[in-house]
Amino acid sequence: MPDFLETNLKRLAAIQRKHTKLLAVLIVLITIFLGIGLKDLTINSDIRKEMPIELPIFKLNDEIADKFGGEDTVVIAVKLDDSVDSRNAVRDIRDPRVIKSLMLLEDNLQAEASISAIASPASFFKGNNTITDEEISQTLRTPQAEAFFSRDYRMTLMYITADIGTGEEKIKEFNRLIQQQIDYTPKPTGVKFSITGAPLLRTTIFDLLERDAVFTLTVSSILILILLFIMQRSFSQGFLVFIPLSLGLIWTMGTLGWLGISLSVATVGLSSMIMGLGVEYGVFVVSRYHEERGKKVSQLESIKTTVHGIGTAVIGSGLTTIVGFGVLSFTSMPMIQHFGQTLALGIAYCLLAALFANPVLILLEEDYEYWNTHRKLGKLTAKKEEHVQRGR
Fold it and tell me: Distance between CA atoms of 291 and 232, rounded to whole angstroms?
């Protein structure tokens, strides 16, 4: 098996030397094809899909939700605003002006088809449009009404039960609808309305994850590139390692998009991990090639030694890493399964990029340097001959 691998790696190196430009075009086309999948890459905001729903406890929960209703609950918190300094400001959340504002808000929300139930202090006064301040005070002294208020009477709650549906956009749309109704409702001075609840918390968390994933990927890319410049002592050599690494990441995320596999809370931040784990393969390839060229070995022999020498090592190292993460597919938690599968795929693509794209880029870069050097020498020779001719 080792002899078979080494023989084929040497053949690969010979093909890479003979068809460098053709393989470069092929790599670009593959990258474009897989990169198109990036537009279909989504983030799954439903944490329930990352749970082992086939277990009895989850099945029982689904059965209860089907029979007793499985709608989402959104909470509107009405709090005193201490930043308002006015004589007319509300200082007790049981103030009749607050209750009347809640009554107007509840009436407006009841007209929405997606909302199935609303519970708040205003619910005790349904159908009574001529309610007095005294009636409000008496009603709010009951234990049922007291349950909606905080102990210090600085906050009251309105619970909204609705069939929002799945998907981040639906949740955001529902949030906009609630906020719009709050904005349209007259409110007394000294109170502020805020929206919370499990669906909104879920989308907020995923917004943070998405933003942090972009931020960490950007920072890690910059830091890795700077370290490569320092270690390789050359901008061009640093890019020779970084470009294939970036290709591996694009291929990974593009493949997920093509397969319709969404990023989850477990995988949304894996891009930085893939870059950190996959960068070593490119470093080995580039360093070994320049070590061989430093011995005055020919270009073909150097690329053969690099691909088969480093190739066998990085394939062994990469396969053990891929298997290690791939084994996570056998866990009972889908969240951990997706984590392992995505990392394994990312390492596999980084390994392929190091073996196939790295040598091609190395050869292209060296051929370009050779051509550019001879072009400059040609210009200098032409100028020298011109000066000689003028001297005559």
Answer: 12
For 282-327, write each residue's pLDDT tens digit.
Answer: 898 988 888 888 888 888 888 888 888 888 888 888 999 999 999 9
Q: Which residue has the tokens 């998405």?
A: 210
Q: Where in the chain is the domain with CATH 3.30.70?
A: 71-201
Sole residue written with tokens 């008496």: 138
Residue 263's DSSP bridge partners are 43
Q: Right CATH number for 2-50+234-378 from 3.40.980.10, 1.20.1640.10, 1.10.472.10, 3.40.50.920?
A: 1.20.1640.10
Please identify every stretch of the chain with a pLDDT value under 70, giving residue numbers as ranges: 1-2, 45-46, 65-70, 127-131, 165-167, 374-376, 378, 380, 382-392
CATH entry 3.30.70 includes domain 71-201 = yes
Instruction: Return the residue matching tokens 């209750």.
Output: 99
Q: Distance between CA 17 and CA 296 in Å, rounded?
A: 17
Residue-wise pLDDT tens digits, 68-122: 655 778 899 999 988 888 888 888 888 888 888 898 898 888 888 888 888 888 8
d(CA 326, CA 341): 6
Contact 156, 121 (CB under 8 A): yes
**pTM reported for the whole predicted model:** 0.78
DSSP string, 34-99: HHHGGGG--B---GGGGS-TTSHHHHHHHHHHHHH---EEEEEEEEE-TT---TTS--STT-HHHH
| Span(s) in the chain for CATH 1.20.1640.10 | 2-50+234-378
Give the C-alpha separation, 142 to 154, whole Å: 18
Q: Which of 168, 350, 173, 194 is nearest to 263 (CA)?
A: 168
